[in-house]
Amino acid sequence: MAQTHWIIFSQNLLCIQSLEDSISLPQCINSLGLEAYADEAVELHRDTEATLLLLDLRHEQVDATEITLASLREVMLSGINIDFQHIARAWQYAQFLRTHQFCGQCGSSTRQVKWEMARHCDTCQHRSYPRVSPCIIVAIHDGTNILLAKGSRHTKTNMYSTLAGFVESGESLEQAVHREVAEEVGVKLKNIQYFGSQPWPFPHSLMMGFIAEYAGGDIVVDGHEILDAQWYRPDALPHIPDHISIARDLIDHTCTLLKQNS
Ligand SMILES: [Zn+2]
Fold this sequence. Notes:
With about 260 residues, the chain is an alpha+beta fold. About 20% of the residues lie in helices and about 35% in strands.
């Protein structure tokens, strides 16, 4: 029989249950004292094995001893018995519902569209969809070394990673790669190759990964978003991101390429 899993957000954190050596989602809201919220549930996914329901309590607290609140990052890093992508999607959808109760064009109340993730305005027919923000992320190499940078958000951890940034309106992905790299570290690129993508729910990014070759210029960091950037040999890397991120996949893949070339 198909199981029901509840993705419940309370105070912007996910409600989880810890079982021996794994964490899981609640399978019932009645035992959590949340039965009054059943009408607010949104069905996110249904297949033969499971039904996933979203309940966004916003600032309401869950008063059940078996429930722990965890940030999405904590859940992602610790692993959960449900594909994290479902949780990421639920979080983005909860954000969307919060911010689209009213029409952005005429100010009327909106209603949920039953067959797609959208809010519709019956007054002016404007329809809104959850926002997805495209970001490029790029590993740069010169055939021997990989260029890694320390962002201003990572001064405490001293972590070095690939460069990344939002795509601007009217810009191609390749143009965004050239512009971000020029702005943040001042070097030129050639042979930009698509690598792969990863949804990143902090809060609604779609990371699109590339590998590019260095084409010239000295490293000059912007000193604002990027505090330091250096060339590293694949066998002498600094502290880099966890395995769960596309940044780490890009670094691992690029280092493998460099080792094969050497
Ligand atoms: Zn409207």
